[in-house]
């Protein structure tokens, strides 16, 4: 796993549900066919109402027209990110678009599990309202060992909450790698 | 040590006497549910991780109910059904309910109940967030993603964090203008869309235990709308009567200990509550129907796992009998079984189907349909700036199709009354 994650911020509000992350009409594409997989990148976050995408200004598309991935690799959001449906297509779409980490005040349970167990993107939590303090386009650097995020554009560093129990699954790269390490794959 | 009903069920599934809230434990799974949207990617992960020729842990414990994108010309959606069919054949899955055959059922959460898969005391995981619906049967049911489901397919196990529980008690006798949908929307307004994240929502009280199973399922269905891991109602005589005619499998009834520890408790007297809606664009954006009465709508939609059961249509028929709808009104029975009941269930001497047709509603084939928008040709899908009153469970931007549309979540009584006037209308105006 990477020890430093650096990239541009894409800032969102609260309660970003899975229909905003990947609208249901796109769930028909294959998650294994390489050509179809690209479409998940193209439509990632396409359900967010335009004025609420890329805060504080808004109206900044996450993925440019005609592109299959995003210039933004770190999502900053408010509480309850990923609420709504169980679709693993949501963290999958973010990963395909190029997202490496998400930093939100809190997550909905299924989305959080999917991020961790599927090894898609690291779901960090913070106690600060970082979506009020960071602007879309700011250059950010996450120090995985120190649990900090530095805003290189503004020279400020914030604390991230430790991943706790799930760190070992994140570190292993997902539930299957973790279970193999721990010898948990035997049938019941 | 005292335990909640959720702790007791999880203890049993973990082969333990006691589990504490906050502990991460490995559970033995009784049933894994999947459908056409999440089944194919789950099967891909299973093959990748366990091998091309690997066999599932127990073919009898896997239930595959295609329901999301069924009546559409979308070729990718058809391909997903083909992939389900192929996997079911390879693995000998007897509980596969194929599209285009007599076995097709419709919306998975309602079909699970109808087909006798919901048994008190058992543990169900499903690749759908509304798997919590089954908690109405005094069992543990929760949603998971494809990777977790693939892990269960191969091992029959999954880790879960034991949730703290919140108890919601509804006292009093249900008035005829109030429904389970009003109760859960009341709760959502009070605790918001993340008020129960990683927690169990336990429902009890005289009003809850007076409800038929279908209405109890509306309560537990929307636990996920508050972020809940599961919703649960202890099994009673009504539950057992429902289960016994549909299954001959053994089950175990659990009750919370009187001194069990809860995260918090909420008390309501149903006589003090009134019909409510969740306004756009969040299920917790509650308002009494009277406070928004007169808001113009363009569509009324009665359907889905939470609002397309027989009891929902009986309530709608009570209002629509002898009336004409003023806006497009879609009646979408959750399952084939519900659709058949519309043809034989009588209200005031007429079948429900006749009442809906006379009122000018259109009746669709059973599936999830426009509850989640779906492909462009989906029945009832919202377009442009539609304002929809809907008995479904979610109204975030774009949920029913157009991201410029607004959706008011409401009871079938409110959706039916509003269909007649073309404006949000309190059902008491027609009762």
How much helical structure, as a percent, in the residues of chain A?
Answer: 25-40%
| Sequence of strands across the biggest β-sheet of chain B | 17-14-13-18-19
Largest sheet of chain A: 7 strands, mixed
Kindly state the number of beta strands of chain B: 19
Individual helix count of chain B? 15
Relative strand content of chain A: 15-25%
* CATH topology assignment of chain A: Aconitase, domain 4
Name of the CATH superfamily of chain A: Aconitase, domain 4
Q: Uncertain segments of chain B of ≥5 residues (pLDDT<50)?
A: none
- Morphology call of chain A: globular
Q: How many domains of chain A, as an integer? A: 1
Cross-sheet strand order for the largest sheet of chain A: 4-3-2-1-5-6-7
Order of helices and strands of chain A: EHHEHEHEHEEEHH
Question: Can you give a write-up of this model?
Answer:
The complex is a heterodimer of chains A (188) and B (431). Chain A is an alpha/beta fold and 188 residues long. Chain A has seven helices and seven strands. Chain A has helices at 18-21, 34-43, 89-97, 109-117, 130-133, 167-172, 175-181, and strands spanning 4-11, 72-77, 101-104, 122-125, 139-143, 148-151, 156-159. A seven-stranded mixed sheet of chain A has the order 4-3-2-1-5-6-7. In chain A, a hairpin with a 4-residue loop joins β6 and β7 (156-159). In chain A, α2 (34-43) packs across α3 (89-97). The radius of gyration of chain A is 16 Å and the shape is globular. Chain A starts with a strand and ends in a 7-residue tail after the last helix. The model of chain A has no long low-confidence stretch (mean pLDDT 96). Chain B has 431 residues and is an alpha/beta fold. Chain B has helices at 5-13, 39-50, 75-91, 108-114, 146-155, 180-191, 206-209, 213-221, 237-244, 289-292, 304-307, 310-320, 336-344, 352-359, 412-421, and strands at residues 24-28, 31-34, 62-64, 123-126, 140-143, 157-161, 164-171, 199-204, 230-232, 264-269, 276-278, 286-288, 299-303, 328-332, 346-347, 350-351, 362-363, 387-390, 406-409. In chain B, α6 packs parallel to α8, α12 (310-320) packs across α14 and α12 (310-320) packs parallel to α15 (412-421). The interface between A and B is large, with 45 and 52 residues.
